[in-house]
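Form 12-C: Joint structure prediction
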Amino acid sequence: MMTVPQTSASLRRPARIAINAGLVIFIALYAAIGFLQPNYLEPGLFMNFLRRAAPLVILACGQLYVILTGGFDLSMGAVATLVVLAASILINGDPDTTWAVIGALYVMGVSIGLVNGFVVAFLKVPSIITTLGTMLLVNGLALAWSGGAARGDLPDNFRNLGRLVWRDVSVIGTLPLAAVVLAGFVALAWFGLNGTVYGKRALAVGDNPRAAELAGTPVAATRILAFVVSAVSAVTAGILLGGFSGVSVNAGEGLELQAIAACVIGGAQLLGGRGSVWSAVFGALSLFALFTLLNLLGLPQALRDSIQGVILIAAVGASMWRTRRRN
Amino acid sequence: MTTNIAKPKPAIPDLPVAVLLAGLSIGFFAVVALVTGETAQLSGEGIAGLLQRMVALGLVALGQTFVILVGSIDLSVAALISAVAVLASHVMQGDPAMMLPAVLLCLGFCAVVGFVNGALVAYGGINPLIVTLGTGLIIQGVLAASFGVLQGAVAREFQVIAYGSVLGVPYSLLLLATLSLAAGFVLDRTLFGARIYAVGGNPDGARLAGIRTERVILSAHMVASLFAGAAGLYLAARLQSGTPWIGRDGIYDLESIAVTVIGGTILAGGKGGVAGTLAGVLLFATLDAGFNMLGIDAFLKQVLRGAIVIAAVAVHAVRTKGHVA
Amino acid sequence: MTMRTLLATTVALTFAGQALAQDFNDPAEFKKQREQLSMTPQGPEGQPWAQHLGDGMVDTAKYKKDGQVTLCFSNAGVFNPWRVVGLNNLNAEAELHKDRLQQLIVVDAEGKDDKQISDIEALVSGGKCDALIVSPNTTAALTPAVEAACAKLPVIVFDRGVNTSCPVTYIHPVGGYGFGITSGEFIASKLKKGDNVLALRIMPGVDVLETRYSAAKNIFDEAGINVVGSEFTGSDRAKTKSVVEDYINRGEKIDAVWMDAGDTATAALEAFEDAGLPYPVISGEDQQDFLRKWQSEKLTAIGPSYPTYQWRTAVIAALDVLDGKQVPGPEWVLPQPAITEDVLAKYIDERMPPLHYSLCGCQELPGYPERWGGK
Amino acid sequence: MMAVPALSMTGISKVFPGVRALDGVDFECLSGEVHAICGENGAGKSTLMKILGGSYRPDAGTIQLAGQAVRFTHPRQAAEAGIAIIHQELSLLPHRTVAENIFMGREIARRGLLDKAGMRRKAAALLSRIGAAIDPQALVSSLSIALQQLVEIAKALLMDARILVMDEPTAALDERDSRALLGLVEGLRREGVSIIYISHRMPEVMAIADRITILKDGKKVWTRPCDAAPIDEIVRAMVGRDLKDFYPATPVSAPGEVLLAVEGGTNAGLRDLTFEVRAGEIIGVAGLEDSGKGALAQALVGDVPFTGGAVTLRGKRIALRTPRQATAAGIGYLPGDRKSEGLALRQSVRDNALLTLRSLMGLFTRPQQGALAHDVIDERLGAMDVRAADFGQEIGTLSGGNQQKAIIVRWLAQASDILVFVEPTRGIDIAAKAAIYETMRAFADSGRGIVVISSDMPELIGIADRVLVMHQGRVSGAVPRGANEEDIMHLALGLADAPRGEAGA
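Section 2 - Result
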């Protein structure tokens, strides 16, 4: 038996500095933004950038959980919309109820996640169909409940979550509350995948559910939990969106696909088994930087879609090419 | 003695799903029509109207069936439909002499899109969801950027496709029927069809059996794009002029996937067929018509449709052994 | 031969964008609508939904039908708040006529032309309808279906039109140019030559919206006002706010914001608030949230309208037709008032939801304000 | 007879990441010759045949067909050149009919139109030619594994191949079907077809082969005419050392207390199974393909649970309704098909080894502490001599033996009482094999038990303390250590104690 020369197993390499593809793309895109509009390099505007990117980054983190386990969640945009509308109806301008309502919103989100998860895990409906169904269902519910238009107002303490900016903060100048929420959510998402055993279970389930099951992994529970996390992220993003810009019936429209695209650009693999929180974070930041850059370039709105499509295919194609070359 | 004598099972396994779905759909429609007193909907004209609701989605879904059977998927159909409808009306500008060039140009464009999709999926090895989401975005963007404010119209003569009829049967229904039969025939009776099932059912096995799997995947994508083109042309004829949003507003991408899966074609590929897909389309058409008769609120309709999509797939998916994602 | 045609077509397509963009700039229509804006309406005082501009009337005796009647309504959809308010108007108006109206059948096309055509065909072939009201999703697409319906029963079209004169009447307010003229002239009057205006629009390619912009753009150009940008927001508040923030961040001085629809006006204003800048001159629409903000922040603003009361008019017209009464036609042009600072207070109703359209003409209708989501 | 060989392969080499699968192998086959290739699992037989079939491209070497050099980049080219391969892994379409499967890729068609009736007829003829009573219209998913294997054979016979490769064609067949198949091979040989025959069943090889080539560790040992190669010499050449050294020594101490006891275990594939595993014992399970030995493994690990009967572990009644329950109760599983059932190929060696531990601990366990720490698992992997440049690398890049060892580490980390091995050394090279046997012995010696299910008879005889033989879903007998293959075969075929009447049920 000839084995290819190997180093001794006990000799551990220095920890590899994993450079995330999304990070590289993000830095390149943000550098381009800075080149076009130098004031974007100031901390204040960067913070503002983060504030606006926060909902997408948070959605991408949630979507990542589902993608790691091998599925998709198309319902998250609809959940975000539901959250915005439900918040305005339930709070109805009374700031005292804000926190109770936010609690209720999370309960709602968790139940939608549970439904998605149960249907996929036990009724064996492929997630793309399941969440397409819940997308229609949740969107319909949100519209039916609100009567198709925004109702009620969001009080300032709710709006602040997406809108408040602390000024005169040392070093960074300004600090938006949304950026704090973002950091908190990313930290939680990171903790979920790296601070508990869940992350590795999810990767194994996404990679080979059969092998994971035979090794004792609770496959169904892992899947369901991923959908719950995804729904929770949609609720959080919805709260920020509502806070940032107020009530509207199309608050979450199209965000699900952007979140999937973000994960993929960041290097997560569709159908599971590969990816990290940083794929989601930097993928989403890259995507948002791309939007901003295209805005600054003043291209026709429509062409921005096209460029997004090109970037999407190119990013995945490039990672495919890298994998192939390595093998 | 060998003990395992195989019991013959029906050769077309998707037939029961199709029959069941179609039966349920027709039953639902008939009951609603009777209960609401809309008995006129059960006349020839009413039925023709019901079936006409199937045409656009039906055409797209036929193509979608090919890609799903081969184990791929196509999300770019919605953008492609818009592109074709806009191109057709723009090229024709109401001039009957331009009908043929317009149709040729549109189908040629579809073939190119299908080729690009197929090549990126089959030879590039990129996930089909990403590829077709990407090409869809590209088409949609270019379309909206260059044709956003265009007005054009197809030729009056071209609209015959959508509005003409023979012996009370609209041409569009004949078109759908003919293309369905053709698609069914191709899948069931031709070499290409057999290859599609082989590649979708077991890509490695198909490769070992000497099938050029990449070519089959690529061809299936071209078929899907051409069917989307047919749907686009039909819509252009029906709507007189295309806007860059008709595909997206019609949600033809997700709905075509949904009806195909509802009809018993499995997303992994290799199992399913045209009959099931048509039954799925019929279900959607009867839901549309039935909800109209019942006067169900538009938003509630969406809720019901979402629940029905899940339930319809769950009915046959729940027996799946192993895992789905 | 065919090859050459194809090639020529391909080349033509490349330049198509510029070649045909002029479609929405029709000087004759611009002039006509400008006149209509200052015309005195005919009809009952204080009931703009029953008034009309101009003199044309059509005779409808042949459609007269006694006893209980059934009206059918093919709706393009309820995909925006304007249509939600409108549909409530229409339903409430129908309730006023319970004695005459046996049934009102409403079918919703969910924004799909194809479905609306099928819906109309089904309504006509169903044989229950005595008259058909259509709010078309797209002008050209619905024309053949409406034509076919005209052959069977009286048809009333409102909001967007159809390319045929077969309907008994086509109800619409003055129009897009009128909207653009009102808002454009107001902004032009408040700005100096060389000042900047940012145009925020919902989406391209929709005739009723394109004409609004084209009219305003003409006026800005004439007044020497600089349009720094024209952006599409898709009626999305978050996107609106982001777009405006981007312009602010770029260091552009924005003196005025012109909008082709007001449902995201408050989001645009918030961008200025968040940046700590003074409010610009702004043109919105007649939504409650915008009017309240206008009042509380003392904005320099105007609220042109595309009144939702036309949904009431549709029912009124249909019943008049079945009564055999003369109705304004072949076009029933409704007055299109704008909300100005003097009349602002009377349009604000704190009970109503933020995106309620004040010019709904619905205050006296049954179920107000709950039916429209008010308290 | 010594004309230009129908096939000659010279100097074929192929390297996979971590393994040199073939190293300058020469091989030839004349027309009308049955040329057997023997070798341990992992010796390179399948790789050689995949190169011949166009699935792999060789790194070096040439292939000549009837003296003409050929180069295949796609299986289609090999098929067109007249090479047909009956693959070891099934490559059927479960949702399609038998006829459609037989004609996959070679449909009878005129101008693109299928001749379905013609294919049905021809399929029926083909099936009866190999003596298989299968309806060509049946769906493949409705057939047993053995019948599916026959469909595979029919598929390969469809083409009038000049060279036919049969890779373990009888592995899933019972005696009668095997005999029919050998008759078929005989007939083909007379027609002048070159047949390359790969099998572990020595008697079969001796009966049918003209020449035998031995491969070992990717190299050719020798090629000899059949009559110049007695069985023991073949075995020595294959194994490279005496079998005595190869398997670990028999334990000195007698088996201890009863660890695992199954009483009356029953489900769809198993009938009234009763046996026990004692501490320190390795129990082998033998049987033909549908004897139920696979179902036994699946039942023990909760994958396809028992529906009747009782299972006790260390005297306590346990429920084995899901793999998770079995895992938690202390039963570990090492599946035969590692790729699809054992490994998450894109995850690291470490992650695969930790999979069970992580799955059974509380969700909020810190992943880098205690037993989950990298150092701890790295030590275990090192102790098992898992060879990898870095335990953080993807396990898919490791050789089969190292992968198997990593899975063993998974269960050692979980401190399982019973390990269920299925085909423990399939696709594993010989050096790693000995190490795995060593590990199995050591595991048992530590007071725990092993159930090993294998179709590799010498392996069972060498490693197991006791071999249970299964036939038609029940245990047809047990043989002690030191029994020979014939004893086992006898029981496996149901000839020993099964009432005659039941054989046909």
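Section 3 - Comments
Chain A touches chain B through 58 residues (CB under 8 Å). Chain A has 13 helices and two strands.
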